[in-house]
Design a protein that fits this description.
SETD3_SETD6_MTase; protein-lysine N-methyltransferase activity; globular; two-stranded antiparallel sheet; set domain protein methyltransferase, domain 1; 47% helix; SET_dom_sf; SET domain-containing protein; mainly alpha; 16 helices
Length: 457
């Protein structure tokens, strides 16, 4: 069986739904009856506005999620062009429904979707044997970044029987291991899951668990159906194609070439792959150096409007190639380093560089930096236009700050019953605010660049 990921969620949802259909005769009846039903729970954003969930609040909420980071989480991770809903529906009709029918259970797609939502929002990874599982009691606690408890279990157990200690299956792998005495597993106190306190809990205060230390609000909304008021994990991500297109628009290079259809593609990808980080960004307030994470898109902006090293690098490469730069990889990396140092000096408000390899007459570096800044501006403008929709109309003619002001008023005017829409617009507003913050910072750098140009000429 699939121990984790989307496939594990599907199979566990099937098992959970089967037990729900057996009520009141399921051995888990008490636990199952404690779970929220469709009537008293808004569910998870994954299903809002879908054909089987057509209420007006859900439909409006789904419209507001378009263009936000939440939209990326509505797609299959391994197949970003395939909606998760399509895969869930396919699993239900091809696997779940036939199995349930053979068991004599009357099922529905909507019922299965509800079971999927329960698994998505409440299941935990237990160990190598159980994999993803529903864990009574553990799922009773709300999520917070500053959590006071967490679930602990030993992951490395026998994948055949779940034993933490020696078992007969060890003999199959390691012939010199003696099998345990009968009943040893049952007497082993380590074969448990525990809720462990990791911080002081004040009397009469709510106890919070964590569903994941790095979860963004977009992920929380799609997978769990709620958001935090403020979330330092929030990021905005871009694809390399979006960056390439924005560079073309910003620099008036309208040739319809794709990112992977130009002579420098291999060079650019090599630099992106090899230049994982740069300690020089410690002096920058606009770019940060972060550890690579294979499970995350490295082309992102933080909740503070700061660019990741890889996003900065991709933008710089796109801007250079859009202007016809064709140097070899080593020479290009040297130029990129000079651009970075020039930027840091400008951030510090200095008109003369004191960094080795960059001087006031390095026109190539400063001109390339100007193109990079313009590309960042175009990326940000496009993101704001994409997610700033009122009644389906684009707001591209609005100035900086007007996007968030308009959306803030929209939230204030919402009916209190429109809880889903309120959450969705709040997410969109938070993302707009991140972009506006970044634009404001880069505009300050643009002013410094113009001052330098006036002094230089």
């Amino acid at each position: 069986h699939a121990p984790y990921g989307h496939d594990a969620t599907l199979t566990l949802a099937l098992a959970l739904y089967a037990e729900q259909l057996l009520l009141p005769h399921s051995r888990w009846a008490g636990y199952l009856q404690s779970l929220p039903n469709e009537q008293n729970w808004d569910g998870i954003a994954l299903f809002w506005g879908a054909a089987l969930h057509p209420d007006s609040d859900a439909v409006e909420a789904r419209r507001w999620l378009s263009g936000t980071e939440a939209e990326t989480h509505l797609l299959l991770p391994d197949s970003p062009r395939t909606p998760l809903l399509n895969d869930i529906s396919s699993f239900y009709f091809s696997i779940a429904a036939p199995l349930l029918k053979r068991a004599g259970l009357l099922s529905s797609e909507r019922g299965f979707q509800h079971a999927y939502a329960l698994v998505s929002s409440r299941a935990f990874m237990v160990d190598a044997y159980h994999g993803l599982a529903m864990v009574p009691i553990a799922d009773a606690f709300n999520h917070a970044q500053e959590n006071s408890i967490h679930l602990e279990s030993d992951y490395d157990v026998c994948t055949s029987c779940g034993s933490l200690s020696e078992c007969p299956h060890d003999v199959e792998v390691h012939g010199d291991v003696s099998p345990p005495a009968p009943g040893a597993d049952a007497a082993d106190p380590e074969n448990t899951c525990e809720m462990v306190v990791n911080a002081t809990i004040a009397p009469d205060s709510e106890i919070f668990n964590t569903y994941g230390a790095k979860l963004t609000n977009a992920e929380l909304l799609v997978r769990y159906g709620f958001m935090l008021d403020a979330n330092d994990n929030d990021t905005l991500t871009w694809t390399i194609e979006e960056i390439w297109d924005a560079a073309g628009a910003a620099l008036h290079d309208l040739r319809p070439r794709r990112w992977d259809d130009h002579a420098g593609y291999g060079v650019c990808m090599k630099i992106l792959r090899d230049w994982q980080y740069d300690a020089g960004w410690v002096d920058s307030e606009l770019v940060i150096d972060t550890e690579p994470n294979e499970n995350r898109n490295p082309l992102y902006m933080t909740a503070d409007g700061v660019l990741s090293h890889k996003l900065w690098l991709a933008i710089a490469l796109a801007a250079l190639w859009r202007q016809g730069m064709t140097t070899e990889a080593a020479e290009k990396r040297q130029l990129l380093t000079r651009i970075a140092w020039a930027q840091i000096q400008m951030e510090q408000g200095q008109t003369e560089s004191r960094k080795e390899g960059v001087d006031e007459d390095d026109d190539d570096a400063y001109e390339a930096l100007d193109r990079l800044i313009r590309t960042i501006g175009k990326l940000c403008t496009r993101r704001m236009d994409r997610i700033s929709r009122i009644n389906g109309r684009q707001q591209g003619d609005r100035g900086l700050g007007q996007h968030s002001a308009t959306m803030g008023k929209y939230i204030d005017d919402l009916d209190s019953a429109q809880q889903k829409t309120h959450l969705a617009v709040t997410l969109a507003l938070a993302e707009i605010s991140i972009v506006e913050s970044s634009v404001g910072r880069w505009d300050e750098l643009t002013a410094i660049a113009q001052s330098r140009q006036n002094r230089h000429y």
